[in-house]
Amino acid sequence: MTPKRFKSKIDRWLLLLLVAIMFFEVVVMSIAATQVNSAGRATIMIVAALAIVALIGSMLMGTHYTVAGNMLRVACGPFRWKVPIDAIQSVEATRSPLSSPALSLDRLRIHYGKRRIMVSPSDKAGFLKAIGQDPGDGRR
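Below the sequence we write its predicted structure tokens.
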């Protein structure tokens, strides 16, 4: 079976917020770096700002869900989760704002074992079908 990859849906307001944070981080740290009297401290500040921007950018560009065989792989920047598809007990729609590997509040909460993970695939119906859930069974 060919792996199926689903991109995360991205809420426009969240995209704007994260881009603004990245911009703000670079501007503020650059200004602060010019105010310190130590080249070492200035370098550390700039590297820290770039690391934060890289982390947020990797989350924006690298949040996706891959269904391969009997495994759902969730990626959000450098963070990774594996969910055995046969361990999925239920899937339900949610708008929970809790932290999760999802770039939209239009989410699916996946219960597996004693754990939960929220995802926001842009193609919900295709995603649900790929993980063996019926998009019309009321559990979305």
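The two ends are 24 Å apart (CA to CA).
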